[in-house]
């Protein structure tokens, strides 16, 4: 990547004009930091502040999942000694669920906008296009204007990838942004795609009471994740009545009078009432003047960036899903903050992907951080692994948690914690001590010798670390 950019410290911070295209986590976090440091910031967003993460993706989907988790707990309550009277039946009112989650999304978006405006950020709801490195053409409310900038941050996000033979209509065939149009629980939802998005929605609608068929082109669900975690999740799916069609590639989705037919590449077909197509995302980088401004793209259409979020054009940075680094809101926000730190001459630490903790909000949840066991097996890293099933954990037994585990990975010889996996309830919270250990290069003894509450699920993290003790 060429380095033809001006030196950030040469910019007059009090008069620096920053234009941000995209109001998702990468865009609004960058705008907040820049404005707090004195820059004159304009942010241009098509939908509303928060972008797809807040309005159509993370916030609404995880709110839906929270409702599904509650349903699952009711379903499993009999094992805890809770019973319902003969006329009691727990059902989900999907219309109310969707109204609630969309309301929460709009409230979150409004909160973000209020914070930005309080910091002096100019907010434009519209679309933007680069004319060159320093000028952005903005269309809003039918009018076109030119915004002059000393620097630009591109945080334009991504959009659901669509199959030519499975076009979503928002009524029977959906992408993940359209599911919130549903008024009733689908009788039989077919989910095409077994990656994170497909697995999360399959888990959620299974918990809400739908019959679910998950179509996976690979030999297991979550092909890019920890194999042990994927095995546990697939077992839970099947135990809860979900049909998982492995090594089954969908070739087409056809709408019928009262449902859908999903055709498979081997000639089979599956009939259902609705279909969610979750086969990845494509960056929103077409038609926004990147070539004219000298911003280079990868073959996949993602914006090429370095460790401090710089593109190949002077004073143009990029953050979030449009960069193809990691499709996580936390990573987008960090990229945005790093970009502004570099632009404004502040101290900068390039993003370190091995320190990123991520979570899949299925039931059970799957959280990971750092080096993977697959990387150990390939010889990329040398390490030791201890995996403890949660079925031996006292708190897990009290909660009737039967599925899940804790896995801790340490560097061979030194005993430094370099990775971890948690599968279980609230794994998104439980991964934090392991993420802290990886980031701060803690020794397994540091983790093992830290007090945990008894009984607690974190006790299994401490025990796994104890078993990795290096005897001197």
From TrEMBL:
GO MF annotations in UniProt: flavin adenine dinucleotide binding; NAD(P)H dehydrogenase (quinone) activity
Self-association and partners: Homotetramer.
Pfam short name (any one): Pyr_redox_dim
Pyridine nucleotide-disulphide oxidoreductase dimerisation domain location: 357-464
Family: Belongs to the class-I pyridine nucleotide-disulfide oxidoreductase family.
Occurrences of domain FAD/NAD(P)-binding (ranges): 18-336
Note on cofactor: Binds 1 FAD per subunit.
Organism: Arthrobacter echini
Positions contributing to NAD(+) binding: 193-200, 280
EC number, as in UniProt: 1.6.5.2
Annotated positions binding FAD: 62, 128, 321
Reactions catalysed, as given in the entry: a quinone + NADH + H(+) = a quinol + NAD(+); a quinone + NADPH + H(+) = a quinol + NADP(+)
Cofactor(s) this protein requires: FAD
Protein name as annotated: NAD(P)H dehydrogenase (quinone)
Keyword terms of this UniProt record: FAD, Flavoprotein, NAD, Nucleotide-binding, Oxidoreductase
InterPro entries, alphabetized: FAD/NAD-bd_sf, FAD/NAD-binding_dom, FAD/NAD-linked_Rdtase_dimer_sf, Pyr_nuc-diS_OxRdtase, Pyr_nucl-diS_OxRdtase_dimer
